[in-house]
Amino acid sequence: MFKRIGLFIATNLAVMVLLSLVLSVLESVFHVRLGNMGQLIVMAALFGFGGSLISLLLSKWIAKRATGMHVIEQPSNEIESWLVSTVRRQSEAAGVKMPEVGIYDAPEINAFATGATRNSSLVAVSTGLLRAMTRTEAEAVLGHEMTHVANGDMVTMALLQGVLNTFVIVLSRIVGKIVDSAIFGNRDGGGLSYFLVVTVLNIVFGMLASIVVMWFSRWREFRADAGGARLAGKEKMIAALERLGQTYGQNTLPNSVQAFGISGGIAHGVQGLFMSHPPLAVRIQALRNS
């Protein structure tokens, strides 16, 4: 379940844990608690958006190293030439700067896009995709990824995550003080009990915030499918998703970038709330109904 959280969420949560520890220390030094709500909100915003922005800025760097991909600087064969020319054509149609193009070694059909801005992005495909998909299907997948880039999905996710991080930091301290006072009798806050309560609440509220982010991630997949249909053709996009459905199995994409792969999965109940992608059958039906 948690593998689907992927690059942005995993990096953001790691940064948030570190920054939350630093903020807790600063609270003890500057006495920034409920007594000074304005100061708390300012510090929470700085630390909350800091985590998401660091995740955003590191996203492309981490993706390259996590997958060990080959970034095509100068095409060395016909496949690489086709990839670069297709991405260039689609980027021009989408009105964005030509992204970096990479190939990473993996048996399954997959692809992803990431990067800090629309004009500083990366589009990568697996070797499994190049082997198993026709050119028309692969073109639709690239169109899907280019739509992510053109829509600025990474930036939007960073802003959304930053807002949620801010709420998590503030609410964890408000509730933490209430709990600490009610259970441990510490009316002035601070101390080990307050720190432990706030740490637990950061994790709990952080998971709840991830549900909201994963909902946005699923919504953006529908938009990217529609964009892929516009750039490459509706039937090509449907055919590409159907091919994914026929071959979908174990996803060997590293945990740090799984949320940005095109492949979806099937999840039910609570697990579905943490899925970054809707089931492929739902995506195909949405395209057919459009």
Give the tally of structural domains: 1
List the total number of helices. Answer: 9
What is the tally of beta strands?
4
Strand content: 5-15%
Report low-confidence residues grouped into runs of 5 or more: 1-5
Q: Let me know the average pLDDT.
A: 81
Rg from Cα = 21 Å
Distance between the termini: 30 Å
Order of helix and strand elements from N to C terminus: HHEHEEEHHHHHH
Share of helix, binned: 55-70%
The biggest beta sheet reads:
4 strands, mixed
Work out the oligomeric state of the chains in this entry: single chain
The side-by-side strand order for the widest beta sheet comes to 1-2-4-3
Q: Based on helices, strands and strand pairing, what is the structural class?
A: alpha+beta
Shape: elongated
Descriptive terms for the model:
alpha+beta, 7% strand, 290 residues, 4-stranded mixed sheet, elongated
Polypeptide structure, described:
With 290 residues, this protein is α+β, with helices and mostly antiparallel strands. The chain has one domain (1-290). It has nine helices and four strands. It has helices at residues 6-30, 37-67, 78-94, 127-132, 135-150, 153-184, 191-232, 234-247, 280-289, and strands at 70-71, 100-104, 111-117, 120-126. Strands 1-2-4-3 form a four-stranded mixed beta sheet, sandwiched between helices. A hairpin with a 2-residue loop joins strand 3 and strand 4 (120-126). Helix 1 packs antiparallel against helix 2 and helix 5 crosses helix 7 (191-232). The longest helix has 42 residues, at 191-232.
